[in-house]
Amino acid sequence: MxxxxxxxxxxxxxxxxxxxxxxxxxxxxxxRPTLADYVELPGxxxxxxxxxxxxxxxxxxxxxxxxxxxxxxxxxxxxIYLVQVERVPDEQALxxxxxxxVLSGTRTRPxxxxxxxxxxxxPDRPVPIRxxxxxxxxxxxxxxxxxxxxxxxxxxxxxxxPTLRLxxxxxxxxxxxxxASGVWRELTPGEVQSIQGSGTAAVSxxxxxxxxxxxxxxxx
Length: 220
Prior knowledge:
This protein is α+β, with helices and mostly antiparallel strands. Helices cover 19% and strands 24% of the residues.
């Protein structure tokens, strides 16, 4: 076995369902909840961020090359989000998102966006969204292929529909599936290979449940 193959064989890559209110890192000087409260596997680090007020799929890995593959925008790895926004976007707002919007002087890549007919089946958030009796809300599905800071929230706000709740359900070929909030599972070798070979041709699996090998740590 070559040295590279030996390192690869020892690498770990996991999918984690990050709960709302958890920082996407392992330490925090202010004592707020972090990944360390849920993930006890040593040597893995987050491949990309998911803000404290967002939920859903994170990938963590000890393989630096794989982490680069996941996070580098040149690979155009699609990331799929379920987004609850204020009011119902009209066709003009959806078209703006699909064409890309200008954020801090930079135009985003075009997004794939569609309205959802029904709210997705998601667990209740521990901190409810703000509710205004006179302002309806709507769920959309957005797919982006880059990772600007708070990009989805900034894009929806730019077209007049602030984000109220944000849940990432897929990164490339890996979907959140039925993984419970606060739980992680290790990816199979085949799933890791699918990330290495994915990119612009990756297919959305946001509604296809995985058959996860559940972690030893769950959210209690």
